[in-house]
Amino acid sequence: MKTYNVAVAGATGAVGNEMISVLEERDFPVKNLVLLASSRSVGKTLPFKGKSVKVQELKEDSFKGIDIGLFSPGGAVSTKFAPIAAASGCVVIDNTSAFRMDPDVPLVVPEVNEHAIAGYKKKGIIANPNCSTIQMVVVLKPLHDFAKIKRVVVSTYQAVSGTGMKAIKELEQQVLNLYNSRKIEIKVYPHQIAFNCLPHIDSFLDNGYTKEEMKMVNETKKIMEDPSIAVTATTVRVPVFYSHSESVNIEFEKDVTPQKARALLKKAPGVKVVDDPLKNKYPLAINAAGKDDTFVGRIRRDETIAHGLNMWIVADNIRKGAALNAVQIAESLIEKYM
Ligand code: NAP
Ligand code: 3JN
Fold first, then answer.
1. What is the value of pTM for the model shown?
2. I want to staple 96 with a disulfide (CB 3.0 to 4.6 A). Which of 78, 176, 214, 313 is the partner?
């Protein structure tokens, strides 16, 4: 079997760590694994397949001989280093927003638009969408193919792991200190996140939406290859460690009964229907954490419009929302093109 030299850039972060685990779990054909982070992490080691791998500083010459680069070092670092890596012959799969809307960079969720991977030849870069978009489009796609979606109204309930390691620690610290009647530190978010909900993810734009909300709007159109789908989003941070939940309202061009939607989604790749509310069965963040599938339930008619459904979509934001989706892209890439 052919094997590949793989680099993980941002290896010490929440996404990078999960990428290493997913490569191991899925037995990705790795010849040599190179782990890259900032100079702060030089000297650290991370486990891969029973061995300790040293973390190296990400530098311009880090990609010589590397076939595939899985990137999550933040937008500014990707903007600088992804083209450098691509110029040395490495195909970059980038988890940041740096290249997502570049028309010469495919934005891929394999269950939805795997064919778009072919476009990597233009710049040597494939973009991984935002986590909130990924879990929504794997559910929207089979419904759109059946009844054409006109409009989507989504509200998200996003876990703190979406903000990285420092936010996971901040929620832990705030919960422990509040229980012990001690002062809490507020560093990562503008407000206390423990026992709170913040309608504010990423920075605010001139139109009153946040960048996270506009990512959902624009990325959905690109991945679904249909700019006519209207999307409006409200993104909210909640005190959950792993898995994003979403309330999604969809308006279709023709009728889709809840039964038909369940039947379509039961056959959809990467989707699990959990929808038996009378037995208290619906998707939950704590059940989705650590899983690969996107879970959907509470499927019911929107009784206020002609052809509408409401549903609840949950997935592990660090796995399907980031690391797993990137490794699935890499799997398609090597199967079809390398
Ligand atoms: P994190 O836990 O804070 O980790 C950040 C990683 O980037 C660490 O490995 C860090 O290394 C590295 N890094 C930072 N500055 C660097 C530099 N100058 N040179 C090299 N490496 C550098 O964050 P995360 O949650 O893993 O997220 C990282 C990025 O992934 C985000 O900024 C975002 O763009 C993307 N992301 C995407 C999704 C998605 O929706 N698909 C979800 C979450 C995150 P050190 O440990 O050495 O500082
Ligand atoms: O907040 C979340 O739940 C997901 C966060 C994603 C994120 C965080 C910092 C920078 C991104 C992203 O993937 O869109 C970025 C970015 O690259 O813009």
1. 0.98
2. 78
